[in-house]
Amino acid sequence: MARQVLVLVLAAILTAGAGILGVTEALGAHPFWSVKVTLMGAVLGAAIGVGMAGLGMRLGTTVWLSAVILLAAAAAAHWGKTRFAASYAEDMVAGRLWYFGWIATLAAVCVLAQVLLGLAIGRRNKAL
């Protein structure tokens, strides 16, 4: 149990730290809300990781599902950013897609970080 909590906390700190250090802004998040979406994504990703572990999802399923969500969310965020900028900030749907796409991207990153940290610490059979 202590190992699971350690993995969860480390993954959330790594995800949140990336946003605080400006990684999300450098990758295309808006400077005004880049830290905000990082913190929301870290909390959401931690909750999703706990839920996946609670459901007993296997490692392969967790990695596959998180990777698909990561790719889809990153594509949605990129498309939203492109459409929002092309509309001179008038396309509200594209702006929301950009914003929520980043939250989903960082949640998937947090879940993948939990899996990788769990493997590094030694728990090999479950999501955490």
Topology:
Blueprint: H1 2-20, H2 23-27, H3 34-54, H4 59-86, H5 92-121
Helix pairs in contact: 1-3, 1-5, 3-5, 4-5
Characterize this entry briefly.
The chain has 128 residues and is mostly helical.
Mean pLDDT: 91
Order of helices and strands: HHHHH
Please give the domain count: 1
Structural class: mainly alpha
The low-confidence runs, each spanning 5 or more residues with pLDDT under 50, are none
Distance between the termini: 10 Å
Number of strands: 0
Number of contiguous helices:
5
Q: What is the strand content?
A: under 5%
Helix content: over 70%
> Which sheet architecture does the biggest sheet show?
none
| Global geometry | elongated
Roughly how many Å is the radius of gyration? 15 Å
